[in-house]
Design a protein that fits this description.
The protein has helices spanning 2-41, 44-60, 62-76, 83-118, 124-149, 153-204, 229-268, 273-283, 285-306, 312-345, 356-378, 384-401, 406-438, 441-446, 457-462, and strands at 211-214, 217-220. The chain is mainly α.
Length: 464
């Protein structure tokens, strides 16, 4: 039995977090090579402008991640519905996302100039491209949410790699042929659009849990009751809005914590933003890996929540995978930070090398916060919203007070990111403790029927 359990653990590790972490590492390799090329074909200010554009996109793209969270929860809640009902709400959601993307593009083009003036950013259309890319990303997230809910982590890993490859080719080619910063934004949009189409193709060929594939059709493994279509449509809309709102309130602060430092340095210290952008890009290796691993952790926490189980083992595996590369990067930054930056970005972007290990530790702390937040979102624990609502504005104020100085900004980021990781970790510990209490026989008997239908037993314990 022990041998079988270990084999099962290793198999889960390989097909879930390890596969996604490997995909995140490959995607990060593409990102580093892309930055290496851009740092050489663009001027120092031009490269800094591309990194600022990317950070604006990353902040806006949190909407897509929030939708992904809602799709995972909703698809897992559809296990007892017929195939037509399960795909019906997905088709409607895809149509809504398509119309919204067109509308977002029109608005982005209309407001990009005043926003560029506000941010002192010399490339207005690049801001519009970042917003359009973020709207296209929402469609990608819908398809990836389906892959996560259906445990097709290998298909998801392949899509992460394909997206990185498409973005790499599009951004490098269009920037290098003379389109510069605007070309990089256009390449980002095209790469995401292609990744979305491949994700949809993969999702269409991924059977839902509890369904068996036979011939050219996917049929239920056992008879399932059919629900009235209008009721399901209404409930789907309400659930998606509720889950997306909670996820957005959690993930938006995380996106700000990940990217706001570059924007603030670009605002307070335009001459130094190129060097800071280089160490920022290098330091985000654990974050990029964490974003990939979070796909596994979110789905597993949501699935085990429905089963009344704890996803503590999945959380432990995810944490080990994201912390290790962050600590290795910090150590490498201490030993050879200047040389690493010179090789990756060229000698002109090594001025911020002394701050590399500090910023690497800050981004490692952020990746830990990301894992904790993903676990809490999957478990349906919403108090993380309030913790991040306090930590994020505090971080912005502290970074602004650093006045764009490279080392002061990195140290301020490390302090704030560590505080956020500690506070979200405290919530995880509380939730896990509540789960252990709920697993005791006497408590299980007392809470056999929750007071509120649909509320996990763990939350019932914590509310008492």
């Amino acid at each position: 039995m022990a041998v079988a359990a270990r084999r099962e653990l290793v198999a889960e590790l390989l097909r879930g977090p390890v596969a996604l972490a490997a995909a995140g590492a490959v995607a990060n390799f593409f990102n580093l090579v892309m930055n290496l090329v851009l740092a050489r074909v663009l001027s120092t200010r031009g490269y800094g402008a591309v990194v600022e554009q990317t950070n604006i996109y990353m902040v806006l793209s949190v909407v897509g991640l929030a939708v992904l969270n809602a799709v995972v929860h909703r698809d897992l809640g559809q296990l007892d519905n017929t195939r037509s009902l399960r795909w019906g709400w997905i088709r409607k959601l895809r149509n809504v996302i398509g119309f919204s993307t067109v509308g977002a593009a029109v608005v982005a083009i209309a407001v990009c100039k005043p926003v560029a003036v506000l941010l002192s950013y010399p490339h207005p259309f690049a801001i519009a491209e970042a917003a359009i890319a973020a709207s296209v990303w929402v469609g990608v997230c819908v398809e990836r949410g389906l892959l996560q809910a259906r445990r097709n982590y290998l298909g998801l890993a392949r899509n992460v790699i394909l997206e990185a490859a498409f973005r790499f080719v599009g951004i490098v080619v269009l920037a290098a042929v003379g389109l510069g910063v605007n070309g990089a934004g256009l390449g980002l949009v095209l790469g995401l659009a292609l990744a979305g189409e491949f994700a949809r193709w993969t999702a269409a060929r991924t059977p839902s849990p509890g369904w068996a594939t036979g011939g050219d059709q996917t049929v239920p493994a056992a008879p399932r009751p059919a629900l009235a279509a209008p009721a399901v449509t209404r409930r789907t809309r309400e659930v998606l809005i509720a889950d997306t709102s909670v996820a957005l309130a959690t993930l938006a602060p995380l996106a700000v914590l990940q990217n706001i430092d570059v924007v603030i340095v670009g605002w307070r210290n335009p001459e130094g933003v190129g060097g800071y952008a280089a160490i920022s890009t290098a330091s985000k290796i654990p974050v990029f890996i964490g974003l990939a691993v979070a796909n596994y952790l979110l789905a597993e926490a949501a699935r085990r929540r429905q089963a009344g189980e704890s996803a503590g083992r999945a959380l432990a595996m995810a944490l080990s995978i994201v912390v290790a590369p962050g600590l290795l990067l910090a150590g490498a930054g201490v030993v050879a930070g200047h040389g690493i930056l010179a090789v990756l970005f060229g000698p002109k972007l090594t001025a911020a090398a002394p701050a590399l290990p500090v910023l690497a530790l800050a981004m490692t702390a952020l990746s830990v916060t990301l894992m904790f937040a993903s676990y809490l979102l999957g478990a349906g624990y919403r108090k993380v919203v309030w913790v991040l609502a306090v930590c994020t504005p505090l971080t912005i104020v502290v970074l602004t007070l650093a006045d764009g100085a490279i080392m002061r900004t990195a140290v301020a980021g490390l302090v704030c990111q560590t505080l956020a990781a500690m506070l979200t970790g405290a919530l995880v510990v509380r939730l896990l403790h509540a789960g252990r209490v709920a697993s005791r026989p006497a408590v299980r008997a007392e809470l056999a029927v929750p007071a509120q239908p649909g509320v996990p037993v763990v939350q019932e314990v914590m509310s008492r």
